[in-house]
Design goal:
By secondary structure, the protein is an alpha+beta fold. It has two domains: about 210 residues, Rossmann fold (3-Layer(aba) Sandwich); about 270 residues, Glycosyl hydrolase domain, family 43 (Tachylectin-2, Chain A, 5 Propeller), CATH 2.115.10.20. It is built from six helices and 29 strands. The strands form six sheets. A seven-stranded mixed sheet has the order 2-1-3-4-5-6-7, with helices on one face. The relative contact order is 0.11.
Amino acid sequence: MNGRRLAIDVIVPARGAQYWHEVLIERLTAAGHAVAVALDPVADGWPAWANGTLALEHRLFRRRARALASQIDPPMRGVPHVATNLRVDLAGHAPVRDAPTLALRFDGAYDARAVPALVAAGQLPVLDVVRDGAHVVGRAWPMIDRREAASLGVEDVLARAITALVSAVEAFAADRLDRLEAIAPLRADHRFLPAYLTSALPRLGREAWRRLRFRQAHWRVGYRFHDGPGVADTGRLGTGWTLLADAGDRFYADPFVFHWQDRAFLFVEDYRHAAAKAVISVVPFNAAGVPQPARVVLEEPHHLSYPQVFMRDGAIWMLPEASTSGKLTLYRAEAFPDRWRAEAVLAEGEISDATLLAHDGRLWLFATDRDGFGSTSDTLVVFEAEALAGPWWPHRLNPILIDRRRARPGGAFVRGRAGRIFLPVQDGTLGYGGGLGLSELLLLGSDTVHLSPPHPIVADGDWPYPRIHTLNRSGPLEVIDGIVPVRKPLFDNRAS
């Protein structure tokens, strides 16, 4: 907790309390604030059609965890404070009083009942945190990972509603809650049933048919040797790409290149469809620039990906993603490239695609954090340290941003001309792996992080798979990956 301890009144609909309300209250309490609950007798719950449909989808998709949209009894926690520092209005009807009030708007609507209709219609809601009904003080662009089901999209949106409100409360407590703009008028029609019948249901049917015939996801890696300006310089894929072949029962993704003893080594996520889990493999290149057979170099009980390999302090290190383990673990090469030893845990949590940067005498990690619920791809966090093994401290402004268009790194930092620094970032507007952009690092310090809006990489040239999500380069060797439609083997309809 960066600021003062607050007395907070959280206003909850008396007839429409949901599990995400309870989670938010628990988060604020865990942050050290004194939280009391006030019930709004005016606000209604979500429509029965919406509740029933979302609950049915939840069962069909075999989701065991409690849905954030599920109805609960109103959480009872104390009585409203006599001297309240802040009110958080989850009902959308609270009049502005003496105490500052924060509320959420979902594409312009204060009522969270807009969420299922927006998601069912295939829209990507923008969340505004509004202070005193007048000014936007925070904004979030939640990622919806799986758009075939309204229930899964609603979960992603409500997850970031929690993140955005907790972040706004902490900013208020630290006296750094800035006004972004005056609020705009309501702009959307939020009827759930028509949106579900005309958009969500056909979308679900198309996805079910697709999954009967195709792998859920299959990636392929491309490489090229190129002495001139690369993708990060031109902003275009260009030509000269060669496909790294796979056998179809697995795919390679998240390519990183490392040069050692005048040889190039390509490290990849090596995902086996049958195991539904990935290991890290290396593809050595011979002196003629021809890739040799891939071989496994790191395997753990959990999924591994994003094998960032680098040299520092006289040793070679790997920092792979292992978000399902709940830890970010640093590995040291004992016998490069084949043998690695876990050296230190740098951070706890569902941390994805942590990307290292040495800057101004300190070390920094840019990554996404799932924050307990929702997507892994929309919440940027930064950590800083004085030494590689740590200790690593979360940045005081975490989360830096909530934005499906630029939160998740997509490759190592790129140092350009005149000392400019760029980060490849994934754009989830079209879904996971939908595209890649380049954001310039404008400011970085213990009190500030500022990345420019990304410039999209144009997927032209001879690379046949334009939906890319990783870019890396070492010397003349440049690597990318792209998602590919691959049919399932005949009579194999297992999930993959």
